[in-house]
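Appendix B. One record, verbatim.
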Amino acid sequence: MCLELVRHGNQENQNTKVTKVLKIFVGYDGEIEPVAYHAFCQSVIEKSSVPVSFTPLALNTLNEYTENHQDGSNAFSYSRFLVPYLCDYEGIAIFCDGDMICNGDIAELVNYVIEDQSKAVFVVKHDYKTKHPVKYLGNKNEDYPRKNWSSVILFNNTHNKDLTLEAVMNNDGKYLHRFSWLKDDQIGELPIEWNYLESENEPMDNIKLIHYTIGTPCFEGYKDTDNAYHWLDVYARMIHPIDVNEFQDYWLNDLE
């Protein structure tokens, strides 16, 4: 089950207790950057103060879902909106793009729902024009309203019953990525440190979640950005104690 909110006490003194496991859905693109998914999960595990479970949004596992959209820049552009459906519209769940590193305790996000359970989602409400019209692998990086709001979504699932399987399959990007199934006052706000856009936002301290939206440091040309070392450090710990050079030699010898 997704993380649940269990109320204790009477109407005058309601205390909300968080129970069970924090469920995290992560964008997964097996053809382009599967390593990004694994590095992100590693970073969450290292910092989390509560049990977490991860669900990769891999299209081959979403048997009921048919991807009808043709305009996504990655394999999970639209499947992210299935999260409430996959949780049976119960509890709390988090969606994150895979091209991220978590430097904070992701359990902190749950407090936003506890403090305001009237909100259906919480997001960082970015308002910017990109500095980079071309991103990784030569993909166009176009500006549009509410750009990158949907790259980190804290769902209070019970308020998102309009996100049915059919609604996600049949509605366009404008409708979904602008959260058009909700009223504006149902969209809560997270602080920018929970979806800091590397190479786009101004430098800041105490970043809790770095989003390598222009290009993950696994790609050439993106290993020298200000915060690339965070990703590279997590990657190094993730593959430890593998000797990368020895491992590469093994595969090269196997192919000969």
